[in-house]
Design goal:
342 residues; alpha/beta; 8-stranded parallel barrel; two-stranded antiparallel sheet; 12 helices; 40% helix; binds ligand PBG
Length: 342
């Protein structure tokens, strides 16, 4: 250390030059530590019961897909070999109620979409969200009594919702509701009903986040939820140790994979979790992150290389995969780059 505790610089300079390895493209490729591939992508898709696709105001470039177009859309994803998709329904307001009963309808939008996709493409993994918010008149993920979101009563609904999805052919059940004990409950119910091979990807670490705004607009739950908050069940974004407890509980309850959500502002959480538990770990680049990046790209403030950068940073932080609305664009860019290199 020199005066005032300022280091005296690199004593091995000039023999050590960090820039030497970076000089040529072939060398940069050799020293690259993390690589994004199409195998890392999960594509969230919004579906609607209307017969035409509709744009989503808060998510430029993203559409709600009607059932008569879903097979073609999945076909596009399969041209790029995207391994899995995640389905989210825009539920007709007429069928929403206090309990979210539509979640248990075996012909609901999600179940119909799963059946159609499975009939045409059996090689794509289908992930379905378990939570009541697309179906409740109040927009919460659980059942409410006297202003309280009831945990144990909600579990019963979630277990039945999971079975309903598994029966239609869902491959991965992804509980996003943040009720305590739901992974154990869902695992038990799945096993009881013969679905012991159905995987569970738990939204183990889900923060109460402002970045979900555009998603709520997309599935039409924002009107129902209005100004109410989900802070009594989703985590406080100021917390980090609590995330480790959530993950360890979900692993002990039988989660096969876990997820951290939102993504980019939470890379520290992702890193801690992957380093601690070494379980398949996924990050959700949520709707608000998509909208921020996409608005900047549309205005030419950012180039679309920023998409690949953001997704690669998830990998660097420890993600085994990323749920991203950019999945198709990213797969296209990766395919073109690959051809360029060759
Ligand atoms: C529903 C759910 C939400 C998201 C995924 N599942 C929203 C919420 O909890 O309010 C957010 C996804 C996104 O913003 O892209 N429980």
């Amino acid at each position: 250390m020199g005066k005032n505790n300022i280091p005296n610089g690199n004593p091995s300079f000039p023999s050590t030059r960090m820039r030497r390895n970076r000089l040529n493209n072939w060398s940069r490729r050799l020293i690259q530590e993390n690589k994004l591939s199409t195998d890392d992508l999960i594509w969230p898709i919004f579906i609607t019961d209307k017969n035409k696709k509709s744009s989503i105001d808060s998510m430029p470039g993203i559409f709600r897909i009607p059932l008569n177009e879903i097979v073609d859309v999945i076909g596009e994803s399969q041209n790029y070999d995207i391994p899995a998709i995640a389905l989210f329904p825009e539920t007709n307001p007429n069928v929403k109620d206090e309990l979210g009963s539509e979640a248990l309808n075996e012909n609901n939008l999600i179940c119909e979409a799963i059946k159609l996709i499975k009939k045409n493409y059996n090689s794509v993994g289908i992930i379905t969200d378990v939570a009541l918010d697309p179906y409740t008149s109040h927009g919460h993920d659980g059942i409410i009594k006297n202003n309280e979101i009831l945990n144990d009563e909600t579990l019963d609904m979630l277990g039945k919702q999971a079975i309903n999805q598994a029966k239609s052919g869902a491959d991965i059940i992804a509980p996003s509701d943040m009720m305590d004990g739901r992974v154990n409950h869902i695992r038990t119910e799945l096993d009881k009903n013969g679905f012991h091979n159905t995987q569970i990807m738990s939204y183990a670490v889900k923060y109460a986040s402002n970045f979900y705004g555009p998603f709520r607009n997309a599935i039409g739950s924002e009107i129902n939820l209005s100004k109410k908050s989900k802070k009594s069940y989703q985590m406080d974004y100021a917390n980090s140790d609590e995330a480790l407890r959530e993950v360890s509980l979900d692993i002990s309850e039988g989660a096969d994979m876990i997820m951290v959500k939102p993504g980019m502002p939470y890379l520290d959480i992702l890193y801690r979790i992957k380093s601690t538990f070494k379980i398949p770990t996924y990050a959700y680049q949520v709707s608000g992150e998509y909208s921020m990046l996409m608005s900047a790209i549309k205005n030419n403030y950012l180039s679309n290389n920023s998409i690949i950068e953001a997704l690669t940073c998830f990998k660097r932080a420890g993600a085994d995969g990323i749920l991203t609305y950019f999945a198709l664009e990213a797969a296209q860019i990766l395919k073109n780059d690959f051809i360029n290199i060759i």
